Amino acid sequence: MTNFIIGAVVLLLVGTAVRYIRKQKKQGAVCIGCPSSCGCGKKQGGCVCQDKA
Asked: What is the pLDDT of the chain when averaged over all its residues?
């Protein structure tokens, strides 16, 4: 029973993450998770998120 509960929680977390990524991509986000994803990235010639890392 414990394995079933753990598996269900993992599937829920993965499903939620996939849904979030799909939603962000539909909105046009290039760098998901970047605070300025709509204003940086390939749209303007270079990703600010990667330059700071």
From this structure: 77
CA 27 vs CA 5, 6, 21, 30, 35: distances in Å: 33, 32, 10, 9, 14
Give the pair of three-digit tokens for residue 41.
């990235």
Report how far residue 23's alpha carbon sits from residue 4's, in angstroms, rounded to the nearest whole number.
Answer: 28
Q: Which residue has the higher pLDDT, 41 or 1?
A: 1
Q: Name which residue leads in pLDDT, 28 or 35.
A: 28
Q: Counting Cβ atoms within 10 Å, is residue 3 exposed (0-12), middle (13-18) or buried (19+)?
A: exposed
Give the C-alpha separation, 37 to 35, whole Å: 6
Residues 7 and 14 sit within 8 Å (Cβ to Cβ): no
Q: What global pTM score does this model have?
A: 0.60
